[in-house]
Amino acid sequence: MSNTQVLAASEPGGATSGVPCVPPVGERPFSAGEAEAAARMFKALGDPVRLRLFSLIASHEGGEACVCDISDVGVAQPTVSHHLKKLKEAGLLTSERRGTWVYYRVEGPVLASVARLLGHFG
Amino acid sequence: MSNTQVLAASEPGGATSGVPCVPPVGERPFSAGEAEAAARMFKALGDPVRLRLFSLIASHEGGEACVCDISDVGVAQPTVSHHLKKLKEAGLLTSERRGTWVYYRVEGPVLASVARLLGHFG
């Protein structure tokens, strides 16, 4: 099962929703599988350059940015591509080619499910 | 400035509050310093064993657990201690010795500020 599937259950139509299978962190101890899935997300966000790239895309109009918009974080293009790939693998971004450029979009429901993991504490 | 200070501004009394200095990820691109501070938190949560330990403490009564309660995640005690230290360094846990045992407590406001980073997207 992919990481996105564990963290965001599939809707009948096949699209991912924001419904998390992993409970909020204060509800009960995570199982090994839940911890694996959630840790993969946090690890993807746990690099400063990757997080800057992610915030750049997330704060761009419509939560989407062209690679041509995201080359000013002080690292070379291959490094940018590497980080974007990691964020895609974690399910936090999707990408789409339109003509010359690839556009990256934040997966809002997945991000929301990660936020819910940490919320409702106490 | 410590990580906790960047993510959770100090209250007049000196205790940390949940007010984040780092904005939600969809608000504007993070600065290098903001990304550093936030990535450190995510990195601390980005290990499956560490995350299981964290969820175990967070879901324990009062968001607090004795080390004697948290030895059943399938790793040796020195590994448990190593992970708890990393979570403390990130500002996500505090600890206190009471008699024989050390008690670990989740820093609720810091956790909430990390959740807010990911929330309010779109």
TrEMBL record, chains A, B:
Residues 1-22 are annotated as: Disordered. One of its GO terms (molecular function) is DNA-binding transcription factor activity. Keywords: DNA-binding, Transcription, Transcription regulation. The keyword Transcription regulation applies. Signal peptide: none annotated. SMART domains: HTH_ARSR (SM00418). Residues 30-122 form the HTH arsR-type domain. NCBIfam families: HTH_metalloreg. This is Transcriptional regulator. The lineage of its organism: Bacteria, Bacillati, Actinomycetota, Actinomycetes, Kitasatosporales.
